[in-house]
Every structure is written in structure tokens, then in C-alpha cells.
């Protein structure tokens, strides 16, 4: 049973966390290089938010937006 848990430890420490160890070492040399993943995610989120807001505006202009003051019909 001990070898099973050591195998899990080897998988996570030596294989799955290797890219994070690389980024940690890279941060000492280049802060921007180490944070490129964060910048990519922020750009993706910003693009998605702009797209979402444009779609909301498009539906509002077409009159397809249904706004009701109650959340459910049984609350009326």
C-alpha cells in the first residue's frame, strides 16, 4: 500500500507539477515571462465579456429580452 501512495506522490511532484516548477524558476529571470499564462487568461476573459455584452445589447435592440419582475410564475 505504501508503494501506491509513493506512486501518486511521484506522479504529482515529478510529472504534473513540473510546468509549475518551471514557471517558479522563470519568475526569478522574467516576471512577464512567468505571468504569460495569467495574461492569456485575462485576455480570454475580456474578449468573452465584450462578446457577451454585445450579445445582450443585440437581444435588447431586437426586443427579444424578456424581463419579468418575478422569478417564477407561482410568485405572481
Topology overview:
Blueprint: H1 2-16, H2 18-27, H3 31-34, H4 36-62
Tell me what the structure shows.
InterPro entries: DUF6341 (IPR045922). Keywords: Glycosyltransferase, Membrane, Transferase, Transmembrane, Transmembrane helix. This is Uracil phosphoribosyltransferase. Pfam families: DUF6341. One of its GO terms (molecular function) is glycosyltransferase activity. It is a single chain. This protein has 76 residues and is mostly helical. It has one domain. Helix content is 74%, strand content 0%. It has four helices and no strands. It has helices at 2-16, 18-27, 31-34, 36-62. The longest helix is centred in the middle third of the chain and has 27 residues, at 36-62. The termini are far apart. 0% of the residues are buried. The mean pLDDT is 88.
- Give the total of beta strands: 0
Query: Low-confidence stretches at least 5 residues in length (pLDDT < 50)?
Result: none
Q: Which H/E pattern describes the elements?
A: HHHH
* Fraction in helix: over 70%
Features of the shown structure:
single chain, 76 residues, mainly alpha, transferase, DUF6341
Would you kindly provide a brief summary of this structure?
Helices cover about 75% and strands about 0% of the residues. It has about 80 residues and is mainly alpha-helical.
Amino acid at each position: 500500500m505504501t508503494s501506491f501512495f509513493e506512486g501518486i506522490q511521484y506522479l504529482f511532484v515529478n510529472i504534473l507539477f513540473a510546468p509549475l516548477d518551471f514557471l517558479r524558476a522563470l519568475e526569478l529571470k522574467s516576471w512577464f515571462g512567468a505571468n504569460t499564462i495569467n495574461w492569456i487568461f485575462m485576455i480570454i476573459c475580456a474578449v468573452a465579456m465584450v462578446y457577451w455584452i454585445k450579445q445582450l445589447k443585440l437581444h435588447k435592440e431586437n426586443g427579444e429580452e424578456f424581463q419579468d419582475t418575478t422569478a417564477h410564475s407561482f410568485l405572481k
